[in-house]
Amino acid sequence: MNSYYIHNGTESTGPFDFDELKAKMIAKTTPVWCAGMEDWKYAGEITELQPLFVIVPPLINNFVTPTTQTEIGSLEETETTEPTANSKILGINKTFFYVLIALVTLFIASSVFTYFENKRSAELEQKNTRTEKENLQFQLQEKTIKEQKNQIIEQEKIAFEKVLKERKATLNSRLVEVQEKLFKSVSALEQAKNKLNKAQDFQFLRCATQREQEINSSQKEIDSLDNEVVELKKEMDHISLELEKIKI
After folding, report:
1. 62 phi and psi angles, rounded to 5 deg
2. CB of 61 closer than 8 Å to CB of 49
3. Could you tell me the residue ranges of all domains in the chain?
């Protein structure tokens, strides 16, 4: 015989053996449990507890005594209340118990759903924040690169203009030198031509050989000065063209 625990609707007591259960006068609707059972059961569902509920009738007399009538009424009341006890789980009305289970299940499901939704929202927000931060950094990098390029272009422009200015100053300086040389060469050419004319016209106290030498010398000087004037004019034209190309 197993030892059983019994539940009175608020707490469980035990374990009790068969005789102790009999002394407790448990009913068929009393929840009981013993080792090896998966869940509580009503005592009336346990085979080995059935002898507890066998009613031994009294001796039959020719009349029903008030006491007997009272016992019959008690028996009927017990049998009437059995369906009510059978409609409870752990002392709780079955309908209310199932509604309570449904509400608890709904609450747990709602809590889990809310948790995962909040977690998903937090992850999306974190992802969006990270993306915005990366975009901002990319924009700042692009802006920095653009500014650096503009600075390089500006520096190259300034350097190029400086070179042009220096080149222009050099050309102007050279142009002045060429003009001065040209002026001197033209003056010397005029003097050489005058000298040649004089050598050709003046014949007093000179022999033919001396006259010829003076004329040849003057002619060579004139030819040299002519070439120099031509070269200087070419250089002036070249410098002028370069100066026209330089625009600052």
Report:
1. -75, -10
2. no
3. 4-86, 159-245
